Amino acid sequence: MRSTSNPAFRNLPRGNVGYGQYGPNTGFNQPEGGFPGYAPAPTDRGDDRPMTVDDVVVKTGISLGVALVAGVITAIWAQTQLITNAFGKVTGFTGALIGVGIAGLIVGLVLSLIISFGQKASGPLTLAYSAAEGVFLGALTGVLEYFLPGIALQAILGTAGVFVAMLVVYKTGAVKVTPKLTKWIIGAVVGVLILSLLNLVLWAFGVDMGIRSGGTLSIVFSLVVIGIAAFCFLLDFDMADKMIREGLPAKWAWYAAFGLMTTLVWLYLEILRLLSYLNSD
Description:
InterPro entries: BaxI_1-like
Order of helices and strands: HHHHHHH
Oligomer: single chain
Keywords: Membrane, Transmembrane, Transmembrane helix
Transmembrane segments: 56-78, 90-115, 127-147, 153-172, 184-205, 217-240, 252-269
Region (Disordered): 1-23
Shape: globular
Helix content: 55-70%
Largest sheet: none
């Protein structure tokens, strides 16, 4: 398989896993009626049958639904408490909210490492990761929504818009996922990570690079990161497509869903950050 910027799609099992007597399955670009010479995969063999596009769509939808439910519940809780306690009385609650947000972030990070490096095609782990990220993003969104009403809906619509747009781009072949493009995107992702870590280290020593302080440079940097995250979807779609064509078992649709969720979380977080810059006084 071609390399990808998303660690969830690296070092996947190769070969005709799960082909059996049915021949290879097809992916996002499958011609109507299938390919000549190959019988369709059976639908009654559970996770042993080759994965399909429907498997990826359903698993990704379930994972996204879990993240949304967890996020909405956490955001509503944060909103209710902030309104109830009002200003000057939220010191204790603020600590609890920060703790909940950080806990979600840490749990999500640990699960992502387990899934990515352990090559775990697991529904429970993927859903647990989605729930943890939902709690983290919900806590953050709840606070921002309290001070900047409407930012949550804008971020959700923005994320959905970018996702749909990149899916259309991939499906129509407007942008081909070539080795050169893949290397460029991976290089861009690594560059953003290095720059972000450097900014964090310098910030700890009182040095502000200006890429996360809310100024013009911060807005430009966020726009660049959003663009890179959007292009990562092309690699994610391509990797999921290859997993399907290579006939990986249906359970690997959970792994594909996890990979797409990691990019969705990153994109939503960056769009939320950009909107906070644009709406701040």
